[in-house]
Amino acid sequence: MLNIEDLHVEVDGKEILHGLDLRVPPGEVHAMMGPNGSGKSTLAYTLAGREGYAVTRGRVLFQGQDLTAMKPEERAQEGVFLAFQYPVEIPGVSNANFLKSAVNAVRRHRGQPELDAIEFLKLARQRLKLLNMDEASLSRPVNVGFSGGEKKRNEIFQMWMLDPRLAILDETDSGLDIDALKIVAEGVNALRGPGRATLLITHYQRLLDYVVPDKVHVLAAGRIIKSGDKELALELEAKGYADLVKAAAT
Amino acid sequence: MSVDITSIDPYIRQFAVARSLLPGAGFAWLDAKRDAAIKRFGSNGFPTAKVEAWKFTNLNPLTQTTFHNVVVPSQPALTKAALAPYRLTPDCHLVVFVNGQFRPDLSALDHVPDGTRVVGLGDADEDDLHALIAPPSVAADSRARSLLDLNTAFMNDGAVVHLGRGAVLDPVQLLFVAIPDSAPLAFQPRNLIRAEAGSSATVLETYVSLGVGAYWTNVVTQIAIAPNAILRHYKLQAEGGSAFHVAATSVRLERQAAYRMFAVSLGAELGRNEFDIDLAATDATARLAGVTLACDAQHLDTTIRIDHSKPRGTSSQEFRSVVAGHAHAVFQGRIRVAPDAQKTDARQSSRNLLLSAAAAADTKPELEILADDVKCSHGATVGDLDRDALFYLQARGVDEADARSILIDAFLNELIEGIGGQAARAYFRRACDSWLAKGSRP
Amino acid sequence: MTATQQTIESLRSLQGDYKYGFITDIESDFAPKGLNEDTVRFISAKKEEPQWLLDWRLKAFSIWQQTQEREPTWARVTYPKIDYQEIYYYAAPKRSKQPGSLDEVDPELLRTYEKLGIPLGERAALAGIAVDAVFDSISVATTFQGRLKELGIIFCPISEAVREHPELVRRYLGSVVPYSDNFFATLNSAVFSDGSFVYVPPGVHCPMELSTYFRINAKNSGQFERTLIIADKGSYVSYLEGCTAPMRDENQLHAAVVELVALEDAEIRYATVQNWYPGDKNGKGGIYNFVTKRGACRGARSRISWTQVETGSAITWKYPSVILQGDESVGKFHSVAVTNNWQQADTGTKMIHIGRNTRSTIISKGISAGHGQNTYRGLVRIQARAEGARNYSQCDSLLIGSQCGGHTVPYIEVKNRTARVEHEATTSKISDDQLFYCRQRGMSTEEAVTTIVNGFCREVLQNLPMEFAVEAQKLLGVSLEGSVG
Q: What interface predicted TM-score (ipTM) does this complex get?
C-alpha cells in the first residue's frame, strides 16, 4: 500500500527526515512513535503534500504510484487521508457543505456518482451516530468553536465519510479524555480491513491499548531507529525514549 | 478653488519683512526653500473642509485673526521657579522656549551626556538645517500641508536634539511657554530629533501658557530614527484656552528602529496634532497612543498617517477621547501598506466618550492595503459611558457623578498604564486628573 | 438600423468565462447618439409623458450641463474620460405595440431571458417570483401583474406608472434622490428610460418576491433605469434585482437611480446580484456602474435593508443608503463585493440617523484578487436629535494574491451622546492552513478558494432569498476563477 524508500525531506532549507524507509502493507495498522521534534509531523505533512515540505531524495509509492508527484487534492482523491494534529477552522463554512464538497470531489475522481444533499445527509447522520456526535455539528462552521475533543472526533468523522485507502492520524489521541479516546479508537478499528492501511502517529502508548498495531516504529532525529511489534510500544512506555535514542546513536 | 486673500496676505507681507532676519538667512538653498514655501502657502491658502485631511476641522476661527510673527520678540522676565510645576522631573534635561524663543537662562543643559547634542536652532549646523527642512515622511495632498509651509517660511527657533551612535539621553524635556501679548502672536518652532544607530532617548514636549489671550503655536517636528535606535516621544498640549495649536510631526524609521509616542491634548480653543510615520525599512515598530480631553467649545483633532513601506513592520494606534461641554473631538488615522510590505501587522483603535448633549466626535479610521500577507485591523466606538457599569457602581452606593468619574478615570488609565517611563506616567496622570477635576462634570 | 451587427459566432470563442456575454440579435429603436435637450425631449415623447415630467427632466438636464466637468473624484477608481456624446441614451427592441401578455413578447427576447435563467413564463409561476424584465431602455415583460393587482399591489414599468398612477409617481419621484443629488443621478433624472415601479398599499404583505432583471444589449448604449418602491404603512415587500450585459470591448455606462420609501411600520428588503460584464482579463471593456441607491425610512418603526452581491462591472461606484427619519426605524446594509483581474469597486453605504432610537447595521465583505482594487467607503452620521441611536459596522477585506488592494474608509460622525457606534474592520488573506486543509480533503484549489470565500461571505449571503443565494455562491466561484494559481 505505502512504500517509502530513503526519504529525505527539507523544511525551510533544513533537512528533517534523513533517509526514512517504511512499508505499510494493505490491511495493517502501523504506529509511528517518537519524541517531540523527531520528524513525525513532517512525515505526515510530506505524505499529504503540504507546500514547503521538499522531498530532496528517495521516493514514496502509494499503491504503486509516485505520491510526491501529485497535488494534495490528487492524493486525497486517490485515498490518502490525514487527520490533522491541529484541525483548521474555516469560519462561515458549515461542516456539511465542506464535507459534501470533499466527498463529491473524491467520488468524481473515483468515477462514482455524486451524492445529492439528501443522500449525503443520510450517510452523514448515520456515521455521526456511530461516533456519538451531535447532528447539530453538521451545521456548525468547520471546527469553529469546537472543543479539542470535538475537533478530533470531527476528523474521524471526516475520515469515515471520505473512505480512504491510507489513513494517517497525526497525534489524534493528544489532548483527549478517555471517553473521546475510545471513540477515536473505535473509529479507527472500524476502518480496519484488507483494502486499507493506517499510520498512527503518536507520542504515547495510550491509544495503542485500544488500537492494537501490527507494527510499531520508533522515529528519532529523522530516522526509524527501531521497529517491532506491539510489545515495543509497551517497552517504550516503561523505559522512555532516551535509552533507545542513545543506543541508536552509538 | 479661490483662496481667501485677506486671510493670507498679512503673512505674506510679514514674511517679506522677516525674510533676511531668519536663522540660516544667506544660505541660498534655504532662502529658496523658504520662498517656495511661502509661495505655496499663498496659492493654497489655509486648508478648508474641501481638503479631505481637513474635512472635520474648520480653521475659520484661526483665519479670522491675524497673528504676528515676530523674529526677535521681547523677552518677558521669568524665573526657573515659575516653570517648576511644568517640569517632568526636577532634574531632567530641559530646553525652555518662551514665546517661541530659546531661553538658555531658563534651560538646564549642563549635564547633557557625551555623544549627545541639545541646542537651539540658532546653533544648528547646515546639516541640521537640511534635516529640519526635509519633506514630511509621508506623502499627502499639498493643500493639506499649507500650515507646514507657513512654518517652513517663518521657522526661527526650536530644539535640535542629536544622539550619536549608541548614545542614551533619558529624558530631555522641551518646554514651550507662551506669555500672550495684547497683539496675538504666532510662534513657529521647528524641532529636530535625530537618533543615530543604536541610540536611545526619551523626549517630552510640553506646551503651556502663563497668561490669558490668543496666540498661535504652529510647530513642526522632524524625527529620524536610525537602525536599532529607539525614541520614546511624549507630548502634553496644555495651551491656553484662547490659543491655537497646530503641530505636524514627521517620523522616519529605519531598520529595526522603534518609535513610541504618547500624547495628551487638553489645551487650546482649536488644536490639531498631526503625525506622519514612515516605516521606511524592514522590522520597524511604531506605537502611538494618546488621549484627548475636550470641554467647553474646544475643537481637538488628532490626525495620523502611517506608511508601511517595507516588510515586517508593526504599528499600533490607540487613541481615546473624552468630550464634554459642546466640544468636538476628531480622530483620523490612516494605515497604508505598500505593495511589498508583506508580513505587516498594523492595528488601530479609536474610542470616544461623549459626556454631554452637545458634545460631538468624528472619527475616520482608514485602511489602504496593497499587500496580501498582512494583519491589519481597526476598531472605533463612539458613545456614552457603559450604562450597566454605571448602574453597577450606583447599586454599590456610589453617586452618579462619582461613578462617572471612576469610569472615565478607568477609560483613560488603560492607556496611561501603558506608558513605559514611571516619571512620564505620573506626569500624564497628573495632567489628566486635574482636567477631570474641573472638566468632566457637565 | 439594427443594433447588433456583430455575429454571434465571433463572440462564442470568448464565452468561456462570462456566460452571460451573448448578444441578442434583435431590431432596435435608437434615439440619435449624444445628449442635448432634444434627446431628453425625444425620450419623454417616446414615453408619451406628461408635461410635468418633461419639465422635471429638463431641469435635471440643465443642472447636469452646468456640472458636466465635475464628475465626483473622491472615489478610489480611475477610468478614462467618458464622452457623453458618444452614447445612445435610448435603445429599445422594436415592436408594434406594448405587449398585452407574454405571448405577444418577441420570442427572441423570451429566449434571451430563458438563456439567462430568468423565469418569465411558467417557470416564474413555479418559482413564485414576479418579474419585470428591462431590456436596454425599456421594460419588455412584467409577470404576475394580475395576481398582485388583486392585493392592490402595483408592480409595473415606471413608464406605465407615470401614465396609470401619476399622483403616486409625482409625489415620490425624486423625493429621496433629488434630481440635483449628484452628477450621475442628475444625468439619470434627465434621461432615465425605464425601470420598475412598486407600490404596496397599507397593511399588505406582498406574498411573492418582486424582481427586475436588467439587461444591456445594444452597442454603445447607456442604461439609465429608475426604480421607485413605496411601501405604505404596515406593508412589506421583498425585491430582487439582477443584471447582466454582453461582452463588448468598449466600456458601457450604467447610471441607475433607485429610491425606496418606507412609511410607518413598513419594511422593504432590496437585494441585488450585480453581474454586469466585468471586462476581460486585461481590463478591456466592461460596464461602468455608477449607481445611486437610497432609501428613506420615513415612518416610525419602518425598516429598509439593502443586500448586494457585486461581482460584475469594470467599475462599481455605489452606496446604497438609508435615511433613518422615523423613530425606531432600522437600516441594514449587507454587501459582498468581488474585484478580480482589473476590476475596481468603491462601494459602501450611508446611514443617516435622524430619528430617535434608530438602528443600523453594516456588514461589508470585500474580496480582491488579480489586480482588483476594492474599497469600502461608508458614512455613519448620528444627528443631534437621534437619541439612543445605534450602529454596528463590520468591514472585512480578503486579499488573494499580491497585486490587489483592499481599502476601508469609514466616516463616523456622532453628535448625540446617547448614541452608540461601533466599527470594526480587518484585512487578511486566505490562510495557507485553510487552503491545505480543504485540498487534503480532496478539493481542488479553486474549489477550496470558493468554499473559503463563501464562508467569509456567509453573513451577507444568508440575507438573500434562497434561489438568489445559491446563484450568488456560484457567481463568487466563477468571478474568482484563475485568481489562485
A: 0.90
